[in-house]
Design a protein that fits this description.
Blueprint lengths: L9 E4 L6 E2 L1 H15 L3 H8 L4 H8 L6 H14 L5 E2 L3 H6 L6 E4 L4 H11 L6 E3 L12 H9 L7 E5 L2 H10 L2 E5 L13 E2 L5 E5 L5 E5 L3
Parallel strand pairs: 1-4, 1-6, 4-5, 6-7, 7-8
Antiparallel strand pairs: 2-3, 9-10
């Protein structure tokens, strides 16, 4: 693994597509909304992952709607539907192996939705959870990752960010952190200059004497 030659102060994880898979429910809810609003669902689904819903809807420039109300309805629909939400392979064990003060979940989802999905997937609850409403500028701005690093008292340059979506990867790059791409939910290969792993099944972590974290991969 290209990142196994250094240690990190903390690991910052995106949520959807990185530690859990919620694509089925997200696509059900957004497709229903798009059809109701006369929006091309296929084109829309290509843009929603990793971004705040309010930013996605506002960018569409639809007339006669209140974006905030649309987000409220979408969020409630996603909260009410957790069918198919499941952990990325190996994620639960990997997260449980980390010191609680050395990792965070950083998501564009609203906090209430994040809580429901984390519980549905059986993901360990993080001491630090940065949700969409915690920052003014969502991904691809780096604000959310910068905030998570500050809350963990770690320099962002010493953090490793686990991401799956282009908007999140762009945010991670802008933050100055190192990036590891998780490809478990990718239907087609993502072109990226960053190292990539499918899931956490063969990934291990060593906790150094100073508390820093070092990744390694179990050989086949």
């Amino acid at each position: 693994m290209p990142l196994d030659d250094r240690s990190f102060g903390a690991f910052l994880f995106d949520m959807d597509g990185t530690v859990l898979n919620s694509i089925a429910v997200a696509e059900r809810v957004w497709t229903a909304w798009a059809e109701k609003r006369g929006v091309d669902a296929i084109a829309l689904l290509a843009t929603v992952h990793g971004r705040k819903a309010i930013e996605t809807i506002t960018r569409l420039g639809l007339s006669g709607i209140d974006p905030a109300e649309e987000v409220r309805l979408l969020t409630q629909a996603e909260i009410d539907d957790v069918a198919g939400v499941e952990p990325i392979v190996g994620a639960i064990g990997f997260l449980k192996s980390l010191p609680s003060d050395r990792w965070a979940i950083v998501t564009s989802a609203p906090r209430e939705l994040a809580k429901v999905r984390i519980a549905a997937a059986g993901i360990p609850w993080p001491e630090v959870l940065i949700a969409g409403e915690d920052v003014q500028n969502g991904k691809p701005a780096p604000d959310c990752f910068m905030l998570a690093a500050r809350m963990l008292s770690q320099p962002i340059e010493e953090c490793l960010i686990f991401e799956d979506a282009p908007a999140g990867i762009e945010a991670a790059e802008a933050s100055g952190a190192s990036v590891l791409v998780i490809s478990a939910t990718h239907r087609t290969p993502l072109s990226t200059r960053h190292p990539s792993i499918e899931d956490y099944d063969r990934v291990n972590v060593t906790i150094n004497a100073d508390g820093s974290l070092r990744l390694s991969a179990t050989p086949d």
